[in-house]
Each structure stands twice: as C-alpha cells, then as structure tokens.
Amino acid sequence: GESVGLHLPTLSVQEGDNSIINCAYSNSASDYFIWYKQESGKGPQFIIDIRSNMDKRQGQRVTVLLNKTVKHLSLQIAATQPGDSAVYFCAENMRGNTPLVFGKGTRLSVIA
Amino acid sequence: GAGVSQSPSNKVTEKGKDVELRCDPISGHTALYWYRQSLGQGLEFLIYFQGNSAPDKSGLPSDRFSAERTGGSVSTLTIQRTQQEDSAVYLCASSLEGTGIVEQFFGPGTRLTVL
C-alpha cells in the first residue's frame, strides 16, 4: 500500500539494535498518552499507553517514558525487528471519551 | 470478534461530486470518532459521536462535511462538492463508553482521491 506520510522524520536502525522514538506533546493538562504503530495501508494500532501519574511503563519489548516537565514522550523498542518498520505516532487526550490529539509521526525503518 | 470496518477502502471521485464514507464500529462501542490523515501529516480529529449524538463537531473543516450515526452503530461521513484538498485517508475509531482511560480502536481507513 501507499505510505501514509512521505515527509515524516525517519529513523533508520539496524536489526537487533534498540530504537528510541521521541515526541513532544502539546497539552500539559492531558491525562493519557498513547503510542500507535501504523503500517502502510492500515489504520493505527495501539502499542502502549501511559497515564499522566506515571513516568515509565514497560510492555513486551517496548517502554514508554513520560517527562511532564518538558512535555516529552518517548518510545523505546528493544531488539528492533524488520516487522517493527512502520510509522509511529504519539497521541494524547483527557480521560473519558475525548478525541485524541496526534503528533506528526516518525517513520521507523529497520535495516536487516 | 470483528474490528472496526470501513468502506469503501478506496474512493476516487471528481471535483464537485459528493461522497459518502461508511464506518462500522466494534459491536457494543458507544463512542465513534472520525479522523483525517493527509499525506505527510498526522491524524486530524473531525467529529465524535456518543451514541447517535455528536457532542464535538469542532474538527469538521467546512460546512461541506457532515456526519451522522444511526442506531448507535454505523456512521456515515459525507463530503459534498468535494475539492482536491479533501484528498486524504479518512479513519474511523470506536471505543467503549467510560470516564477513565478509554482505548480507541481504528479501522483501516478509506483513501479518498479527488481528481
């Protein structure tokens, strides 16, 4: 399928290395932060989330770090695999059923 | 169970024509969202439904855009008199109702191309 963004920042990493994708969010009142992965031709897929009362959360091969002082969010992927190649978006929102506010996205390219 | 589905997957239309995009949310999800993703951009919020009502239409870019939801399920996004700048991927998401942290599940999107 076509790429979802031709002019996105790109991060190229060697297979097996760790990846770090960064995001600056906009609203200091946001309660909830999420990382989504979007493969070509597909909708965004949930990876991991973190609440505003936490500064770190770990999943399987992924870790999200939240620094509320500088409104910065990062996604760390351990032992990056070719299947991790995609566009990664951070998103923020308030609690409850409210719209997500998305960042611009970063394209991760894994070199085998 | 089935995820969020959208149809058509691709739509090519001529400038000035009207288009309808359909979203089938996950069964039981009361909240439904429409987003737009333009080339090289992130996702832009358009409209949100809680049941059949739309408490937040703030993202609709112009009065050519409208959406409705019937039976608390299927939603249709209509774009009248399409313009070339309407070309984008239109994504739908749904979630359970809640006041805490509520995950949104996305469909595959409809790619709209206005010639």
Commentary on this structure:
- The complex is a heterodimer of chains A (112) and B (115).
- Chain A is mainly β.
- In chain A, 0% of the residues lie in helices and 50% in strands.
- Chain A contains no helices and ten strands.
- Chain A has strands spanning 10-14, 19-24, 32-38, 45-51, 56-58, 62-67, 72-77, 86-93, 101-102, 106-111.
- In chain A, the strands form two sheets. In chain A, strands 1, 3, 4, 8, 9 and 10 form a six-stranded mixed beta sheet that branches. Chain A has a four-stranded antiparallel beta sheet with strand order 2-7-6-5, with no helix packed on it.
- In chain A, a hairpin with a 7-residue loop joins strand 8 (86-93) and strand 9.
- The two termini of chain A are 21 Å apart.
- Mean pLDDT of chain A is 89; it is low at 1-5.
- Chain B contains no helices and eleven strands.
- The model of chain B has no long low-confidence stretch (mean pLDDT 92).
- Chain B is an all-beta fold and 115 residues long.
- Chain B is globular, with a radius of gyration of 13 Å.
- Chain B has strands spanning 5-7, 10-13, 19-24, 31-37, 43-50, 53-56, 65-69, 75-79, 88-95, 105-106, 110-114.
- Chain B is 0% helix and 50% strand.
- In chain B, a hairpin with a 2-residue loop joins strand 5 (43-50) and strand 6.
- The A-B interface holds A 2, 4-8, 31-32, 34, 36, 41-46, 49, 51, 89, 91, 95-105 and B 4, 30-31, 33, 35, 37, 39-45, 48, 50, 56, 59, 89, 91, 93, 95, 97-109, 111.
